[in-house]
Known about the structure:
By secondary structure, the protein is an all-alpha fold. The protein is built from seven helices and no strands. About 80% of the residues lie in helices and about 0% in strands.
Amino acid sequence: MKDIGAMIIEDHKVFRREIDEMRRSRDTETAMRERTLDDLLRKLAAHHVAEERTLFPAMEELPGERFFALELIEEHRAMEILYSDLVLTGYGKEIWVPRMRPILEVHETHMAREESNLIPRLAKLFSANKLNQLAEDFEKLLQEERKKEHYTWRDCSTNAKERLR
């Protein structure tokens, strides 16, 4: 049986490693910053699409969980905006690492909320069969999204907006 919570946490570990690498970078390491940020954003976009098309819609159907799912979607949107701004900054600028700080605060807060508030509750929210189906769907979508040559943030945000109409 697959575990969606474990998959989410594993992705978070990867995100944290790449973020730490960028945080330690020097202004002269522009190629590394660009490569690492592009890799992070590709993985992050796939992760967000997978959550927003599997787990979050399932949460929205449960009494009392819709608001929390919407908050998590909005945190994705905030990351999208802030990371997009970082890309436009220029990788060799002195402001690059300081500009990361608010992004990292939003990103870390989001991951911590999922890890401490969402994942421990999944077994109470969903049956074992539903959790397994969500995990399979999440994994399949994650793999499909990661294979795309180009990622786009709109893939996750547009899907969320369509559901909220």
